[in-house]
Amino acid sequence: MKKVFALILALAMVFALAACGGNASGVKTYKIGVAIYQFDDNFMTLYRNELESYFKSLETDTVKYELTIVDGKNDMAEQNNQIDNFITQGMDAIILNLVQTSSADAAIDKIVAAGIPCILINREPLGEEGDESYKGILDNATVCYVGADARQSGTFQGEIIRDLPNHGDINGDGKVSYIMIEGDPENVDAQYRTEFSIKALKDAGIEVECLDDQIGNWAQAKGQELCANALAKFGDEVEVVFCNNDAMALGAATAITSAGRTVGENIYLVGVDALEECQQMVKDGTMTGTVLNDHIGQSHKAVDVTIMALNGEAIENYYWVDYVKVTK
Ligand code: BGC
């Protein structure tokens, strides 16, 4: 009789713990799916690692975060499958770095339909007219975007050149002759950085001449190739090399050295992200400037907001993190 009673008691305790803690040990484990557009991206690698370690740092004896981080390999079909899998696996929240913002609707719709909070990061989907808030986010209380306003980064790049003693006009012909190396052209960060860097110069009354504008898809090797080609073609005419990100600027720096040119003397080079190696180059003078794309601030904000959503707290639709200008 005693044995039966003890068994009933033990079972009752197990059920009570399961009800309050998610499992018998009293530990609540949240399952979080993180879909990154592509692991092979310098900036997103820093972002992803920081996201992971910040989640870890917030774990307690009773709350754990189990992350499943997947590589979209820059393929939207692949990422769609990954989102479907997250839904089937019953993720408690999904952090989504879209491969393609044109697929944002479809992705958000199914995540919302499954009752899962969705935190978009890094790649902002825009509204119909372009420069406005995106309905798919605004229409949903459990969907948000955490990121930085790419216009600001472009403006800062332009201002770095504007604020040079010669305003970027090395040969004194009254205009700044530049080449532009763009990221993925479907990405608003690439579009805005291309537009607003030049706008900052024009707004300051500086005349500009675009010698070349090519797509480097955020990649270092492509940045090097495009810059080398442009330097071979336009030679000394090239006064400024604008790169939409630091990975491509690293490539461009190699091409600049190979072409026998010297940053700060007969050419200028700017990027965005402030990768550690680029911060060092700015210090050394081998890069004119960059713009801090704050992966720490952005990833921490994304994690904080995810946890708010997991706790059932109301979240806002947009969270913005500032860029910071980096010069010597
Ligand atoms: C970064 C790039 C990165 C891209 C990925 C941008 O904000 O500046 O370095 O390749 O995000 O979407």
What does this structure look like?
This protein has a six-stranded parallel sheet, sandwiched between helices. A four-stranded parallel sheet has the order 7-6-8-9, with helices on both faces. Helix 8 crosses helix 9. It folds into two domains: 2-148 and 295-323, Response regulator (Rossmann fold, 3-Layer(aba) Sandwich); 151-292, Response regulator (Rossmann fold), CATH 3.40.50. It is elongated. It is built from eleven helices and twelve strands. The chain has 328 residues and is of the alpha/beta class. It binds beta-D-glucopyranose.
CATH topology of the largest domain: the name is Rossmann fold
Secondary structure class reads alpha/beta
Helix-strand string: HEHEHEHEHEHEHEHEHEHEHEE
Mean pLDDT: 93
Percent helix range? 40-55%
Supply the CATH superfamily name of the largest domain.
Response regulator
CATH class of the largest domain: Alpha Beta
Distinct ligands: beta-D-glucopyranose
- What gyration radius follows from the Cα positions, in whole Å? 24 Å
Give the spatial strand order of the biggest sheet: 2-1-3-4-5-11
Report the strand count: 12
Overall morphology = elongated
How many separate helices? Answer: 11
CATH architecture level-2 label of the largest domain: 3-Layer(aba) Sandwich
Strand content: 15-25%
Give the termini separation: 81 Å
